Amino acid sequence: MLVAPSILSADFGHLARDVAAICEGGCDLVHVDVMDGHFVPNLTIGPVVVEAVSKAATKPLDIHLMVQNNSFFVELFAPLKPEYISFHIEEEKHPHRLTQKIRSLGIRPAITLNPHTPPEIIEFLLEDVDMVLLMSVNPGFGGQSFIPSVIEKAKRLKVLIEKRNPNCLIEVDGGVNDVNVKELAAAGVDIVVAGSFVYKHPDGIAKAIAELK
Ligand code: DX5
Ligand code: ZN
What we know:
The protein has 8 helices and 8 strands, in the order E-H-E-H-E-H-E-H-E-E-H-E-H-E-H-H. It is an alpha/beta fold and 213 residues long. The chain is globular, with a radius of gyration of 16 Å. The longest helix is centred in the C-terminal third of the chain and has 15 residues, at 150-164. Helices cover 34% and strands 19% of the residues. The mean pLDDT is 98. Bound molecules: D-xylitol-5-phosphate (DX5) and zinc ion. D-xylitol-5-phosphate binds next to strand 2, strand 8 and helix 7.
């Protein structure tokens, strides 16, 4: 299992320290939640802060856009050369075009699905993406409870991926902990995002990441 801690649960007064801590603690990707106050009822960080994150990180960035006007934000973050940029299918009229644009900028395209969105809706986009991000909470905030129906969704998505693009990874985001990670692994999930579990673990960040792995 690959682990992408969400810096949304970091102490933003000590952001560079907290980004370095997850990288030293053995994470695989640094998950960056970009919220615009329109698509979701929360507002987080823009390119100035994400540039500081990228300087502090020794692992690749995984940028999760929770915004309206995806194309504008892709252009804003592309110069930082993240490994992945994911956008929500619910907020994009031309997802195929946007995946091509992200790839043309040298970034791996990924598509995110809200808890209610069935995986079949992206069947004919799977050839064009390197990762699908399944939300296991409603996007907007860290520290929410895991929605268990994502397990069945991951299994259904895995079947579609085997058929259309076996190289495509499945990532799950929201409420992930040391218990549900086992079910996620059994369902075919490749990467888990975890914010509060990693940053608030009583035995520290490295222990939390090791437990998820
Ligand atoms: C929610 C974000 C998640 C969140 C995860 O909109 O996409 O990345 O911060 O935090 P936890 O693991 O605390 O649910
Ligand atoms: Zn996220």
